[in-house]
Amino acid sequence: MKQYFVPFKELRSLTRGEKFAVLSLIPLYFIVIGLFLQPINEIIPGIIRIVREPDVLITDYFAVGGIGAALINAGLTTLLSIALLYFSGKEMDGHTITSSCLMFGFSLFGKNIVNIWAIMAGVVLYAKYHGTSLKRYLYVGLYGTSLSPIMTQMMHIGKFPAPVCLMLSLLLGLAIGFVLPPLCTHVHYAHQGYSLYNVGFGAGIIATVVVSLAKSFGIKVESRLIWSVGNNTLFAVLLMSLFGCMIASAVAVRGKTILESYRRILKTSGIGGTDYLKDEGGATTVFNMGVNGLFATLFVLAVKGDLNGPTICGIFTIVGFSSTGKHLRNIAPIMFGVYLASFTKTWAINQPSPILALLFSTTLAPVAGRFGPVAGIIAGYLHSSVALNVGIVYGGMNLYNNGFAGGIVAIFLVPVVQSISDRRARARGELSL
């Protein structure tokens, strides 16, 4: 065992290709599992159902196409996204990991191998129009596929022939992709990085405009609830095995120095723009991802929630952002805030929308990281109410519903908390008027 615990500086750095290959192990892991969990002759029909079925919130692909088909759809969509980043020349950074984990998670309930490409094409068009490199906007494009359900929904209008619906879907996707980069850059200034799901906030604005236009033309958009149950034991084993292996591998690579490095991560606020891969290296980042993944999985099980497509997506969103801002110290207060809210409000924490709010509320992790656990608990408490009510304005068309809600909470809460913090600092003589 002694040979494994060599100083981190002595280890050979992975090549660019090796880094992307390691990242690809996550979707490959679930593709292999998917092949074992569903008969081969059912997987392709299941994927076809996933592609064709309306997928506004909440549509669990485990229930639509079967567990195997859902995992393979998610794995393939993620591998295609990783390949896009690799062949575009992007260097591996924290957002490479984050965007890939989000593509995997949300491809379990909303994104699929077909409906993401029109929006991506719109981002390409934006880059071409401005004469800039596509690499600059790839992450925005991948995150912006949160609006992919709009593409599928346009195919189910019913008022027009299928070719017309297809054309409208493609044109709308191009338009969405084109407006995403400038809008998401602008809205970041509103919450100052205290909501990590910045594109989710921008996407919520776009979805509100699109759905409002649709309704004004008599097109009805309704949310839905397709939610699978009964798979907790299976996915508890699969997820905890994966996250346990991530932790063990990280310790094997970096050795005892990983704890010192991890402590540095725990001291950060996690505000938007953080990159743990750049600051602390791959081993510590993977360690942080594994720890957060285990914590989120156990939290869901502890409150008797269901492990299915949507909740696994929430877990992988936490895991993905563990490379760009989330850690145990700043996500726990937010989640406990949502949990405490369940004792005072009209819903139970293990119901579909509340359990998703519990997981996705960690978009506000920087609030707890910057202002402390009490502010984090308050943020989580407020978020639980906002997240469960804002979706009505866009009928579930924005998969990052909690990103939109988190942006609202951050804009509302941060100036108030900041003013209290400044007042205390002035009282201590640490800040002048």
Describe the structure.
With 433 residues, the chain is mainly α. The protein folds into 2 domains: 11-216, no CATH class; 232-427, no CATH class. The protein is built from 21 helices and no strands. It has helices at 16-23, 25-37, 40-52, 61-65, 67-87, 94-106, 117-130, 138-144, 148-154, 162-191, 198-216, 232-254, 257-266, 276-280, 282-302, 309-320, 328-341, 352-360, 365-371, 373-390, 401-427. The chain is globular and about 70 Å long. The model is unreliable at 1-11 (pLDDT under 50).
Taken in chain order, the helices and strands follow as: HHHHHHHHHHHHHHHHHHHHH
The secondary structure category is mainly alpha
Could you estimate the helical fraction of the residues in percent? 55-70%
Number of E-state strands: 0
Uncertain residue segments:
1-11
N-to-C CA distance:
58 Å
Rounded Rg: 21 Å
> Strand share of the residues?
under 5%
Mean of all residue-level pLDDT scores = 92
Biggest β-sheet description: none
The rough form would be described as globular
Number of helices: 21
Question: What topology does this entry show?
Answer:
Layout: H1 16-23, H2 25-37, H3 40-52, H4 61-65, H5 67-87, H6 94-106, H7 117-130, H8 138-144, H9 148-154, H10 162-191, H11 198-216, H12 232-254, H13 257-266, H14 276-280, H15 282-302, H16 309-320, H17 328-341, H18 352-360, H19 365-371, H20 373-390, H21 401-427
